[in-house]
Amino acid sequence: MKRTKIIDILQSQEYGQPVLAKGWVRTHRNSKSVHFIALNDGSTIKNVQIVADSEKFDADLFRLITTGACLSVEGLLTESPGSGQSCEIQAETINILGTCPADYPMQKKGQSFEYMRQYAHLRLRTNTFGAIMRIRHNMAMAIHTYFHNHGYYYFHTPLITASDCEGAGQMFQVTTKNLYDLKKDEEGKIVYDDDFFGKQTSLTVSGQLEGELGATALGAIYTFGPTFRAENSNTPRHLAEFWMIEPEIAFMDLEELMDLEEDFIKYCIRWALENCHDDLEFLNKMIDKGLLERLQNVVNTEFIRLPYTQGIEILQKAIAQGKQFEFPCNWGDDLASEHERYLVEEYFKKPVIMTNYPKDIKAFYMKIDEEKPVCNGKVMNDTVQGTDVLFPQIGEIIGGSVREENNDKLIAEIKRRNIPMKDMWWYLDTRKYGSCPHAGFGLGFERLILFVTGMQNIRDVIPFPRTPNNAEF
Ligand code: ATP
Ligand code: MN
Predict the structure, then answer these.
(1) Residue ID of nearest Cα to ligand 1 atom 9
(2) Whose CA is nearest to atom 16 of ligand 1?
């Protein structure tokens, strides 16, 4: 007999028909004459209830049906008299595919997420992590569907790179050199000409620079792949290995970029609401009672678009009225997360797209604004057409910008920042040969999953997190 997935069994109404289910035991309880087994196979958050008459089966068999054990059950599908489920399986035969001894670490309910992180290989079998991983899959589908439907090409940028100029973060080096016997020059500097690529290479911190090459040929591309940053930032928002989505679009201006960011992110959240109903309902009940409402709000609200300078004015006014922050916020400072949270969660109570940042706190490739901003009546320094999308609970979820397409201006900025030019020749060719206005952004996939699931720690929305001092599993 062919196995039926539990998600399909629960939707079936073929009562009286034989059915074969396979899965892992969630709970097992019994009254005098019957045993009730909740079985889950990962196809849905819901379990199917197996009803087994005590007399039909060996007592030894029931003793092996412990939480976590894997079973194959054949029986008749019947309408369920109990509440909470439409159908159940009256067991005819039960086979134990895999027993589960009493030291199974996921046995108890209500373990802390911290505890479960020690068992990242087994936590996937819990309701919560099952829900998160199904939502993660759905978000990947939403992203590919959105871009495909809008005429973007999925463009694969390299994970190994020889340029370290993006400055987005500390890099992990890639080498086949014998670390116990390093070739060095007279000054004692490591020589790379005998390394695999004949030069120093690292894991990418962003696919953007190569993405720009794709966009200025194909019109609109997106990347979706792993990204590596060796920053020692042990925060609930940072991973050393995370997934990033980076669309890059020719002929797009700042206004259109913000439209894209807002439309795209709303599409993803709407997708979750439409396709992950059971899992979201579960998370809303068990993890975060405000989750569904927050998701609905974001889909139904217009994001605030706020120039950095105006943001500073709002923050300074709040400080003048007695609001206390740990960090200062003068024009030119990078906003701390407490400032972002104030604007998003207290002042506007909506997602905020912050734009036109001071040039010096943003990357070299951002397009410089024509006019200098005025802050509290005073003319300030240059700003750039960068956008950060700031979300409640999360902070920065997207960072994007219009790119500087003028070759001279771009080179001047590269020189001003002492970025090694020799590594950049191929990137600068986009500006030399048929340069065009273009823009793009980077979305941290796990930050999106954090928002959609209501989880608090980024280590809990990726199957096997990589963070400082942690590369287990
Ligand atoms: P942050 O200031 O939060 O560290 P960033 O400004 O360094 O982020 P960007 O270079 O703008 O990040 O990268 C684009 C997006 O990638 C960010 O908006 C964020 O969603 C995500 N991101 C960046 N760093 C990480 C990380 N270490 N772990 C997970 N996601 C990240
Ligand atoms: Mn950023």
Answers:
(1) 399
(2) 444
What end-to-end distance do the CA atoms of the chain give, in Å? Answer: 36
The answer to whether the Cα torsion of 56, 81, 277, 344 is positive or negative is negative
Residue with tokens 């986009």: 430
CB of 6 closer than 8 Å to CB of 71: no
Q: How far apart are CA 102 and CA 64, in angstroms?
A: 10
Which parts of the chain register pLDDT below 50?
A: none
Residue spans of alpha helices (H) in 4-55? 6-11
- Give the C-alpha separation, 39 to 52, whole Å: 13
Tokens of residue 133, six digits: 């991983």
| 231 CA to centre of ligand 2 in angstroms | 14
Q: What is the pLDDT of residue 108?
A: 84
Residues 6+ apart with CB under 8 A from 342: 315, 318, 323, 325
DSSP letter string, 268-282: HHHHHHHH-HHHHHH
Which residue's CA is the nearest one to ligand 1's atom 18?
398
Q: Which two tokens stand for residue 285?
A: 């009940």
Closest CA to ligand 1's atom 14: 442
Counting every residue written for the chain, the total comes to 473
Model's pTM, two decimal places? 0.96
Q: Which atom of ligand 1 is nearest to the CA of 169?
A: 7
pLDDT for 265 equals: 98
Which pLDDT score is estimated for 115?
A: 96
Neighbours of 20 (CB within 10 A): 15
| Torsion 417-244-406-306 (CA) sign | negative
Least distant ligand from the CA of 442: 1
Q: How far is the CA of 355 from the centre of ligand 1 (A)?
A: 16
Residues with CB under 6 A from ligand 1: 168, 229, 237-239, 242, 244, 396-399, 442-444, 446-447
What is the radius of gyration, based on Cα positions, of the chain? 27
Ligand nearest to the CA of 246: 1
Q: Which residues contact 109 (CB under 8 A, 6 or more apart)?
A: none
CB of 50 closer than 8 Å to CB of 6? no
Q: Pairing state of beta strands 34-40 and 18-30? A: antiparallel
Q: Which atom of ligand 1 is nearest to the CA of 397?
A: 20
250 φ, ψ to 5°? -70, 145
* 444 alpha carbon – ligand 1 mean position (Å): 6
